[in-house]
Amino acid sequence: MPSSASELLLQALPQLAGGAAQTLAISLLGILFATLGGVLYGVLATLGNRALNITLQVYLELFRAIPVLVWLYLVFFGLPIFFALSIPSFWCAVLVLGLWGASEVGEVVRGALRSLPRGQREAGLSIGLAGWQLYGYVLLPQALKRMTPPTINIYTRIIKTSSLAVLIGVVEVIKAGQQIIERTYESVLIYGALFLFFFIVCYPLSAASRVLERRWAHS
Amino acid sequence: MTLDTAFILTTLPAFLKAVGVTLQVGLIAIVTSLLVALVNATLLVLRTPYLWRLVKAYVELARNTPLLIQLFFVYFALPSLGLKISGFAAAIITMTFMGGAYLTEVLRAGVEAVPRAQLESGRSIGLSEGQLLRHVVLPQAGILSLPALFANFIFLLKETTVVSAVAVPEILYTTKNYIALYYKTYEMLTVLTLLCVLLFLPLSLLLRHVERRLQHAQFGV
Question: What is the ipTM of this complex?
Answer without folding.
Answer: 0.91
